[in-house]
Amino acid sequence: MRQGMMACVVASMLVSPAFAKADAEKVVNVYSAQQEYLVRPLMDEFTKETGIKVNLITGDAAGLVTRLEQEGKDSPADVLMTADIGNLYQAQKRGLLKSIVSKVLETNIPANLRDSAGKWFGLTMRARVYFTPKDKMPTKPMHYMDLASPEWKGKVLMRSSSNVYNQSLLSYMIYHFGEKKATEWAKGVVANMARTPQGGDGEQLTALAAGEGGIAVANTYYYGMFLAGKEGGKNNKVKEAVGIVFPEQDKIGAHVNIRGAAVLASSKHEANAVKMLEFFSSEKAQQSFADINFEYPVNAAVKPPSAIAAWGAFKADTTPLEKIGELQPKAIAIMDAVGWK
Ligand code: FE
């Protein structure tokens, strides 16, 4: 009897250290499509608070997803951080993400900005909106459909269709207006372009400031960076000449998207990974994230930084982003069909 109990104790001793090892190993390995300066300060804070070291590998989103696929279950990565639901959807579709249950994440992050199965979580939010010359600000409510109207012929500045932000915006259009109308819209946008798509979102704003086109589409944080002088150099014409316009304010709300994070199916440090995501969603971290990125916090308890709060509150679309993610393949097919370069 006594011996039996002993055996039992020994067995549990053998089991628990091995199990505890993953947590005892105070490390979390992150693959990030965000540049180091955007995420490192928060990771350092996390390490200071928890003693968990963060190893960071950065790369472009598609490259990281390919790498994770090749590494399979032997991948050292615990967490994937990337912008836009389109990229998170790609990782999810390939079976790379793990479902996480966390009361903290569920409380801190609104349901529409995280996956219902806990496979990814939004950490900051941005809107994809209009920019017009300050001296030609629209006087009536604007809608995304307007971009395709003859009024904007030869005036639309928008980057290429290979960009995930535009793919997500078209997914939003499909979701709200149906495939047929979204296709007509995409066709109209292409017909209205001021030039062959070139450059990133920032370049659409500089082109507009230089007098090209008449309306640009870009994510809010690019504008935030120009206003803060982090883009645009000394002769920051965007700051001088360009104003921001939030579309769909009287209707469905502007298209919003996220920078997000996900715990990987291959993770060997799941507890640490979840702890880091929970930290990123906390009020303190949310404040820093928004300050560094010029993005909106997802945690409703945190106010947007004053630089972007100055644009005024806006109505955001509340459609669950996973619905927008699912429409990505359709959006890409439409873009190809209408010849969006
Ligand atoms: Fe960006």
Descriptive notes:
Strands 1, 2, 3, 4, 5, 6, 7, 8 and 9 form a nine-stranded mixed beta sheet that branches. This protein has 341 residues and is α/β, with parallel strands linked by helices. The N terminus is likely disordered. Helices cover 47% and strands 15% of the residues. The chain starts with a helix and ends with a helix. The structure holds fe (iii) ion.
What are the defining features of this structure?
341 residues, alpha/beta, 9-stranded mixed beta sheet, 14 helices, globular, disordered N terminus, binds fe (iii) ion
Write down the secondary-structure element order. Answer: HEHEHEHHEEHHEHHEEHHEHHH
User: Structural class from helices and strands?
Assistant: alpha/beta
Bound molecules: fe (iii) ion
Radius of gyration: 22 Å
Spatial gap, N to C terminus:
77 Å
Number of helices: 14
Could you tell me the number of beta strands? 9
- What is the global morphology? globular
Main sheet record: 9 strands, mixed
Report the portion of residues in β strands. 5-15%
- Sequence stretches where pLDDT stays below 50 over 5 or more residues: 1-22
Helix content: 40-55%
Mean pLDDT: 92
